[in-house]
Amino acid sequence: MSAANSPLNTSSEPVTWNFKLLSQNDLGGFGGMGEGMAVQIAKDGRRIMWLAHESAPKNFTGVDVTDPRNPKVVVQTDLPHAQVRSNSLEMSGDILAVAYQTQKKGMQPAGFELFDVSVPENPRSISFFDCSGATSRGVHQLWFCDGEYVHMAAGSPDFEAADPNDDQFYRCIDVRNPSKPVEVGRWWLSGTRKGDNVAPPPRHTLDKGYRAHNCNVYPQRPDRMYLCYLDGGMYIMDIADKSQPKVISHWTNSPPYTGFTHTAVPLFDRGLILVTEESTENNAKDWPKLIWLLDARDETHPVSFSTLPMPPVDAYKNRGGRFGSHNIHENVPVPTSFQSDQLVFGTFFNGGMRCFDISNAYQPKEVAAFVPPAPNGSKLGAIQLNDVFVDERQVVYTVDRLSGGLYILEMDF
Question: Which of 259, 296, 340, 404 could be disulfide-bonded to 400 (CB atoms 3.0-4.6 Å)?
Fold first, then answer.
């Protein structure tokens, strides 16, 4: 079926187009999943998918996906209480890094934990990096792919935000000795900390906060970080000296758009950057939430020039829950991750998971989509696909935010 005839151009009904669903696993009834997905090849050759949960009671789950048609849960861990979440995880080798964020400031555990998962059935804690304090909720998101540094969006007991919504900033933690993590650098948007000598930034209409989110670093440019700062837009950062991160350039579209810049993925060979926003309001009240393409051939002056196509908002806004962009496959620099600067895989909550061909970046085309029916236990009556990961076999994994757990697909295009 051609892109012009995509059923998603006119319909919000469940549909599988140019994907084939291989399996689904509701993870033992704990299928509310976050935005952390990583694949490990265990020492015995098994392929283990590690998944972060959206909220308590579960911490993280390990799934044997060696046979993608028959995924099996091998371990599932619990959080210490209901007011903490571990929404983000990454891994390098056999070390898994897991973020902990509490519902309120001053609670524990708030930080990140490193686990040895060389025996997947028996994760062993190596260390915990504490970010807790009267002004901190801990860590929302982290990036850990090189075995050396955890880059994270976090609070700190010595950081008091000028506005309560601005309480998480960028921190870089040296974990080369994983039993003794040490902070080596930090950066925040000037004006967001009490005592800064500049005025606080203007508030957006929806005001989701000026906070760090994804902080991606790639081996092609280990001296660069691609930092998203929610209502503050996207920053290209010089981290050659990790103790003193410096801004190279800044891009934002808000206003007139509604903020919540989420993820930035550079496509180095093409001089492009993909930038996503997150839809955070039900019934598309914050529409449009899009994936943007930026020309970054001059990294001091990134320019947006196109967005990935979306179906009419009226087809989805009343379907239940959120509709709009969120996560994309991030070309994570590990051996088990698919790498592409031509195909973009993204999740859109009730709009499902979609793939786009950006070989002509000025005319991106939708080439595949997966919008399953509402899973059992969904309180919204609609799917809410939250994250996506593609492994080096080109097997596609996506997760539901509320109850559906893990969906595994193969490309049919």
Answer: 404
